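Chapter summary example.
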Amino acid sequence: MAYQAGRQRSQPRPVPESLEAQAYLQDYATLIEAVPFPSVVFDHRWDVVLSNVAFETLFGGVGAHPTAMPGDNFLRFVLFHPDAATVLGEHESSWCLPMLAHFAAAVERHGQDRGLASIRRDIAQDPIMDAAYRHGLPHWIRAVGPGAVEHDGAVRQVVHPDPRWGSTECRIVDDTPKTLQDMGYTRLTLVLREAARPAPGGPGKARTTRNGAAELRAV
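The structure predicted for these 219 residues follows.
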């Protein structure tokens, strides 16, 4: 995990065996820390390997959770954390369903992976999410097309704790160099857009977001 203000940077995790790979990740951590937007590197299970302070600031207000913190496993956060919808706007359609689609593809590629199997068991324990995964997801992909599943280039809603950003949009950019790809890692950056401000004296409404536990309807 990248360092936060007032503390030292911890070791990236999970740490590769190769010393050269470890050194690369240390330098890459320095690189993403220079990025002003939330940026995260994760493996095929969505276990977070690196993240910058901007990423941790975006999700800094979420409550503690034993298995679904955004800095530990981003997929689990999206699917299972009760505060996910307070940060990720249009939580179900813009975040849950695309992530479930990527999860399904990962299960096909890594069928024997214990980490993915554990996530699948947790999905199965939620009848609504399980129905969405097994039945609703294929229907949704047919309806919106495979392009809607991709993270790179997608514009999605977020709610930032900094009022300069507030409730706004971000464009997701997949900027994964070959070296990270060879390690089995992916990097995503959320390029934030400043929230539009109403003209002085003009009409304007505060945008609201859904609070409460993360939910998923059977599509």
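To summarize the output: Residues 91-109 form the longest helix (19 residues).
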